[in-house]
Amino acid sequence: KTFLQLSSKLNPITFTRNTLLNTDLLDVNKFINMNTNMIQMHEQKSIPNGPWDTLKNKVDFDLPSKDRSSFHSEYMDLLNDYLSSCVNNRRFSGFHSMHSYGASEILDDLSEDDEYDHFNNNDNNNFEKELKECLIPLLLVGHYNKIDLGQLLMEQYQSSNFSKINEYISRSSLFDEMEANRNIDLAEKDKVKTMLINYLKCYTKYIEKPIPGHINQISSTFKPFNDKIDNILSYYSKLNFCINQQNMIKTRPIQFDVYFVPPSAPNDLDDLKVSGMIKSCPDNRFGADNGTEEIYHLLASQQAQKLLNPVADNDKTRNKRVILLIVRKNINHTNYDILYLFVDELPYDLAKSNNSCFKYNELLWKLNTKRDVISSGNKLNVDSFKYSTNYNLFSISYHLHSKESNSTNNSYFYFNGFGSKITKQNIFSKWSLVFDSKHGNNEISYNISINHLFENNNNNKIETTQTVNNNDEFGQYLFGLKYTFCSYQRTSRQTLTFPKDVLQHGLKQIAEFDEQQQLYYYLTWSCKMQLIHKQYLHFSLKHRQPKEIAIFNTELTEIHSKEALYTVAVLNSKYNDHNNHYRNNNNNKPKWKMNAFMTGKQIYNIYGISSDDLPKGSRYI
After folding, report:
1. Three-class secondary structure of residue 330 per DSSP
2. pLDDT of residue 105
3. Angle separating helix axes 124-134 and 70-89, nearest 10 degrees
4. What HEC string does 126-195 produce?
5. Taking the alpha carbons of 174, 177, 182, 184 in that order, is the dihedral positive or negative?
6. pTM for the full predicted model
7. Residue 434, CB half-sphere, CA atoms under 13 Å: how many?
8. What digits encode the pLDDT tens for the residues 167-179?
9. Residue 220 dihedral angles phi and psi, to the nearest 5°
10. How many CA atoms within 13 Å lie on the side-chain side of 177?
11. Residue 507 in 3-state DSSP?
């Protein structure tokens, strides 16, 4: 029997999301035909080796409480010092107008319209309390389990294209399973969920927010970086070449922070004086005429190598970060740029002992980037409007952890409250939002090769294996979106076939038609319209079967509920990746086959797809 036939007979039964979490269920119709076992299926266990099982197998959330050694108190002191210092200096991404909240109230106070509606920002003690109670618990778990869980969580949120935390949580794999599965211990689930969400909210409030997916989601008061994006990318490309290919910074671990001052800034940074500083300016270059090419000659110079790799003077500590300050002078080229290279002493050693506090904690490195670039005289900080409200510094930070592998050596950007790991996706689709659009300054020209930027750079490494065998895969598996979707690209071949039995059964739920042939013609033309208007969506499902479905809005209504009906299509049984001969020799066969008519609620219950992500329909737009 089809979904539509059975659903009309089983009105008292509600299909819940955990009903279909078991990956052994290959399709909707197969599941629904198992009506004799329907009640038992409501108590399905979690996905075998799914996000929750994977998390519990790899992470022990109780480890920090089991440690009674002196290291635990030392690590707590370090975290408190770092976070308290940030609070006292108000270096928080420019979000100070938002209200404060207590750690225990975060989940209750989250709302769809304004995630910080009820927060109060007047008490400095509340800052410290929030940071300690919301950030430190997950930082401790990450350190004791030797995996930076907080950073993995933030990376997936930042790459999700959702600006609101609620939107991300509702689509994240682990949060989805915790919400849907009734067999997870309630107390344990609440503990983990609260810790993760508290970290998300506190991090985005005080450290950095992800660049949203669209310019309309950025505040109208936001001041973009007043420079051409091409100039910054050219510098980034040259820096990657020097660090990743030429290995000019051999010391590990070491932090290398690069700050860009926009061309519109005043001229009082032209003649800085910092002890041990190395300067390159138009009248005194190391080997090139412009700033971009000068990067290589500057870093290769004898003075810079002593500064970057201080082996000769037996400097065994790693309590310094290297700073490259680039004072941009002309928006159209880098010929007149002034480059300063110097070191800044850190309060803690990056490599102290085998239990280094910085080894599994990217947050502490990011807080270093928020330290004063210049601490005296012309005081400069990435989060302060030094001269006016017209510019902030743009920063790129290299966190160079290990000599053995580049997999833990990543680069991050930060500007005016927004930040994330640097990836191809972010540069290509998001960076333009933080650059001034005047005269096309935020458009990447054909002279810049995005792929070339990431040669020998593991920030964009992609693993194809299904085994969760490294931290990046682990983070994506746990915290990545449970599905992705895009508009299906129209081709010369027929897109979708409509089986007669599916149409015939569908007539019983459709209010507008009672004749199969008329319905067929309507759907055929509707499908063509949806393709033209990009309303035919292709969904890739992460933990469900089938892995791929296609949906379009029929703009018809269900006869009883009056809700909109969608066609849900699956890949044609002969059209799949394991039958290349069929694909290559049957190009006129439809790729998709209609499987059922469904309402938005039914699609959500079966596939977990949010109604906000369903196609609107050609007639609607």
Report:
1. strand
2. 39
3. 140
4. HHHHHHHHHCHHHHHHHHHCCCCHHHHHHHHHHCCCCCCHHHHHCCEHHHHHHHHCCCCCHHHHHHHHHH
5. negative
6. 0.82
7. 26
8. 999 999 999 999 8
9. -70, -20
10. 31
11. coil
